[in-house]
């Protein structure tokens, strides 16, 4: 007879959950996503941001509604399994664990690319993964405190970018000459670049702040989850959308869409456009720190999802172990850390993780479908919002490069084959906490 696995501990308050959500969303994406988004949308970048924010709101609302009803580890994996069945839940969990493990390796290498001397990128990336995994192993409150420090510093750096960019714009109100004035942004309907470009920019920006589900993934560790999780998701998403809107507006006004699109370090160029060249290394360091914040929260989220899947024997049952003192899923987190380190040591995934984007959209598609099935008594939002979120995911999938779609389908096919091949070994009761 199986011994019940110990539960995770409810130690996170509202502020803790918000900090973790912010760390998940204010990652390196805010420092890098504006350039490719401007390249496809031009001056209509802000329209893409509005569309991305609308899709994110619908997805976040579905996630929050489900988390209030199922406050367990695993997030959308658990929601999909409870509302839609084993296969949808498995596919959401599989796509998240596999895709985001690859994303973690990419984030670690992104961090190292900002700060490591030539030739030392991989060792520094591996060290970052080891240190952040160690923080997570100390318990979720340590994760939240570390996330708070990282996010506070990154927000200060972004504030510096905004001030510097505003100084650039202030004398004429029309930027540096590299692009149109603020008043011209978005004129014309449809935008000159066409709706495909706008939707592609929305997809890029959506992925940059799609980490709000990390709060739901930690649902078993939040106090008063039915009240705290929806509030934390809503507040964190509102802050991040506001930050992106302000930074995007200042960037377009300071250096214009064409220069923004061509930049390899867009926010550093925005800050330096004021003549404050001394800000460049500060902004670059802020980008590196933001990558660490996203990596910290993501490692925690993968560990909790793997824990939930192990409880249902979708992954090896050993991954369901919880440390008696720190109440962290220590086996899952150690295995995840090892997998990330192996990927960092073996390959550079920064240019080859498009399948993760596909997996994210499948993940949120499952969340919206699950929320759509909830009865009226459990609903916090109209059913049409869940349908709109699902439709948004499908539309954004259509904007992905073909290689990303093919890569995503391969990853999910491997998951299906793996689950079918191991079905005979998944017997036994669920390892309930």
Automatic annotation (TrEMBL):
Q: Which GO terms describe its cellular component?
A: plasma membrane
Q: Which GO terms describe its molecular function?
A: transmembrane transporter activity
Q: Name one Pfam family in it.
A: AA_permease_2
Q: Where in the cell is it found?
A: Cell membrane
Topology in membrane: Multi-pass membrane protein
Q: Which residues cross the membrane?
A: 12-38, 44-68, 89-116, 122-140, 147-173, 193-212, 233-257, 286-307, 328-346, 352-372, 384-417
| UniProt keyword annotation of Repeat present | no
Q: Which residues form a coiled coil?
A: none
Superkingdom of origin organism: Bacteria
The UniProt keywords, alphabetically, are:
Cell membrane, Membrane, Transmembrane, Transmembrane helix
User: This protein is called what?
Assistant: Amino acid permease
Q: Which organism is it from?
A: Agromyces intestinalis
